[in-house]
Automatic annotation (TrEMBL):
Keyword list, A-Z: Transferase
Cited Pfam families: Acetyltransf_1
CDD domains: NAT_SF (cd04301)
Listed name of the protein: Acetyltransferase
PANTHER family reported for this sequence: ACETYLTRANSFERASE, GNAT FAMILY, N-ACETYLTRANSFERASE ACA1
N-acetyltransferase domain segment(s): 3-162
InterPro entries found in the cross-reference section: Acyl_CoA_acyltransferase, GNAT_dom, Mito_N-acetyltransferase
GO MF annotations in UniProt: acyltransferase activity, transferring groups other than amino-acyl groups
The organism's taxonomic lineage, starting at the top: Bacteria, Bacillati, Bacillota, Clostridia, Eubacteriales
């Protein structure tokens, strides 16, 4: 599969919104319950340090956003959000996006990358980040409610980039 990673363009907004809302509907990894509008997605995307899309045959199949995890004195640590459309999961796209985001975070001058809320039941995500050298540094009990109303833990992952 020939996947291309490229900087987000305004023409990608509808595709990103579709994927974002698809993940919200699944209720397994994003905290939001309500769909995002074009204006809300645009506001988010245009206020990131970096946004990249994974494209296959010209179609956006996934994306990530990269930004400061903390303001001010903590802005040397990045945070990111990733999403892949359902039909392209389990095909290595997450690993491609993950590796790319690590490289971009380094290029942006970040010293580390931290994920604050990896849902414990999202085994694919847990396995992905551990395979890329992230360490689980924390756990918050009963922090996420899945669509089936099961309440599960979230994990905090961290990777030093220098």
């Amino acid at each position: 599969m020939n996947v291309i990673i490229e900087k987000f363009k305004e023409e990608d907004i509808n595709s990103i919104k579709y994927i974002w809302n698809e993940v919200i509907d699944e209720g397994e990894s994003f905290f939001w319950r309500e769909h995002f509008s074009n204006s809300k997605i645009s506001e988010i995307l245009f206020n990131q340090r970096a946004v990249y899309c994974a494209k296959y045959n010209g179609k956006v199949i996934g994306f990530y956003i990269l930004h400061d995890n903390f303001p001010g004195r903590g802005n040397h640590i990045a945070n990111a959000l990733y999403a892949i459309t359902k039909e392209f999961r389990r095909k290595g796209i997450g690993k491609i996006l993950g590796k790319h985001s690590i490289k971009v975070a380094q290029e942006c001058g970040y010293k580390a990358l931290q994920f604050n809320s990896i849902v414990s039941t999202n085994i694919a995500s847990v396995n992905l980040w551990e395979s890329l050298g992230f360490n689980r540094i924390g756990q918050v009990s009963s922090a996420f409610t899945r669509n089936n109303n099961e309440v599960v833990d979230i994990y905090i992952y961290f990777k030093t980039l220098y």
